[in-house]
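ok so i was messing around last nite and threw this chain in just to see what happens. nothing serious, just curious
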Amino acid sequence: MPMKGTLINVAAILGGTSLGMLLKTRMPDRVSQVVIQGIGMFTVFLGIRLALQTQSVLTTLFSLIVGGIIGAVLDIGGHLERVAGRLEAHLQTQQSRISEGFLTATLLFCVGPMAIIGSLEDGISGNYQILMTKSMMDGFCSIAFGAAMGIGVALSAVAVLVYQGGLTVLSSFMKQILTDAAIMEMTATGGLLIVGIGLDMLGIKKIQVADLLPAIAIAPILIRLFPSL
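result:
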């Protein structure tokens, strides 16, 4: 079955988020705040860990600069906020964290070598063991994120379906373009964006992470054009 690994991943995220939201109703606000802080600290740690995989600091730097310019011109952050606002109004939620939950979970679930390599492997050979392992990890993370940030985490399942499913469908083409170096720099650049999310969650600094998202796509292009950068 095509995209079986991705579909399992999506189910794990939806199931984990639902369980997390169910547990939240039994959690005092003080406990929820501590959970959010813990998730924020872990998010910063994970982002740094991924960012340190870079083999070209200049590639990461220029990816962020060029990607940030593109994202700011396209006003990606503004569009996401408007979409989140319409969703909040439709769902009639109070003090909703839909936008934050969606962006945080999407970055964590889509950035990383397991998402790319697992999707390519699933499409080329039908082996979805890598995505199965990723699904278990994402499922456990979704429980914590769902309890802390609500339904926005579940919406990230759509991004995972489009992103990983697209990679699986285009696997034969992508396999020729994405070298190991390109995957590594995509991961490192995404890791820095995850650090930005963590800083925002901890209330340290508001980073326009959404406007920086194109940087992840810019990284493999720079590696292709300037391999010695």
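not much to say yet. The chain has a mean pLDDT of 84.
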